[in-house]
Amino acid sequence: MTTRTLIAAAIFTASITAAASAIPITTFQRKNLGTAAAQTGNDILQTSDGGYVYVGTRNFNINYRQITLTKTNSVGQPLWTQIYGIGQSRTEGLSIIESQDGGFVLGCSSDSPLVGSNRLILIKTDSIGNINAARRYDGTTFGRVRSAGGNGYVIVGTKTLTNGQNVGVMIRTDANLIQTAGVQVNQAGSASSVMLSDIAEDRDGSFYIAGRLDASFNVARFLAIRTRTPASPFGSFLWTYDYFSSLPGLYTGMSVVRDRAGFATFAGVSSVSQFPSANTAVCRVDAAGNRQWANLYNGFNPTGGMCLGQSDQIMLNCSIAPQDCGLMQINQNTGTANWVRRFGDSFSNDSASRVIKTTDGGYASVGFQSGTPAQPMLYKHDAQGWIGCNQFNQTTSTVNSPQQLALTLTSAALGPDADVSFEWTFENRGENVLCFAQRCPGDYNTDLQVDFFDYLDFVADFSSGHMRADFNDDQELDFFDYLDFVAAFVSPC
What we know:
Layout: H1 3-15, E1 25-33, E2 38-46, E3 52-61, E4 64-72, E5 78-85, E6 91-98, E7 104-110, E8 120-125, E9 131-137, E10 141-147, E11 152-160, E12 166-174, E13 179-187, E14 194-201, E15 207-216, E16 219-227, E17 237-242, E18 249-258, E19 264-272, E20 279-285, E21 291-298, E22 301-308, E23 314-320, E24 324-330, E25 337-343, E26 350-357, E27 363-369, E28 375-381, E29 391-394, E30 398-400, E31 405-406, E32 409-413, E33 418-419, E34 423-427, E35 430-439, H2 452-464, H3 479-490
Antiparallel strand pairs: 1-28, 1-35, 2-3, 3-4, 4-5, 5-34, 6-7, 7-8, 8-9, 9-33, 10-11, 11-12, 12-13, 13-32, 14-15, 15-16, 16-17, 17-31, 18-19, 19-20, 20-21, 21-30, 22-23, 23-24, 24-25, 25-29, 26-27, 27-28
Helix pairs in contact: 1-2, 2-3
């Protein structure tokens, strides 16, 4: 037995005293059942009451789709669903944030003749989904909506020109969704297509943007952008880089987040000749655009969902062949994949779209499960990524990209916005609970009971330096992890 293990055992013996009750950790996998039409979940928030709200799409056929907004309680049971549409058009719900007044802002798109070429749409609702405002903007494909400066919103997406070229779009609105600035983005002196997928605000009011630049038939560059501060014209760029130029292939930047240290992390999908399958591309950079690291993680296809964990570790939703979805945790400082959890079943295709950090230290993600028809799925993970059933560990290999390439983008004015009208209805939903568990924090081996085997398993991982024993998720394996585990282990639950 190692010295570290002996010390841990001695302190454990001295630590079994009366302790405050621990709060059980809830995990689940739920399928929310709607009407006979296929439905998806595309983005998710946790609400102030501990429940969740997610936006998605109801698919009647390829040309007739409606937006859905579903509210659940804290254990994922559906409370209500609002359905929004513009006639029998293809109208889709893609993104959601909380509005400054306690309601929601939905990012959507529509091909209805009533919106013309202005197909990007924001809908502002109250806390129960009643529409307060809705406006349409110049663009074709919606990327993401985010809060901006505490008094408005910012959108990124894509616009298809009459010649078939795609240009990125970036739009800013006030708190009432009225457009205050808008630009379309393309590469200087080139007919290459640009798409913008996600945006995150920095503390100085500038923005990080993830996207894609189609350089040639079989080369698409990963776009990582930082705009200038609000003192400069809207849509002015401080820098634009491709951090994966040393591994050419087809890339799409899909997500970006900024951490408390001032770094930005970009994530996307890649297909390169060195690997037989799709890969996850992730890079972390400082405010000046200097690359801290840029890695490809083989065998995983990101689905656009990324958030920061309790200690700013990077959490990514991904799909795993042949038909499962997964959650991967990456060390923000080194780019090392700490773990990958695979979840799903052998009977249907599962897909998870977005992931968020929850107030209990875990994570929640939303997606859908194929079937007749497909139905939205809601997953609640603990801090280690487990959901309680149909779950497995997965491994990945990592390849570093050592170079970055500077790119030049230009912007031009975008067209105006306008009001748009929606019809909406209320729907009650049932559910199918695939798994549900409430376990104590001291249940280290997740067998739903706290016993001495949990302690032995933790000490084994801790003494061998396994990062699974990073109990407080601060990305450092130290004695504080041991103290936190013992406190959880001896606490009644």
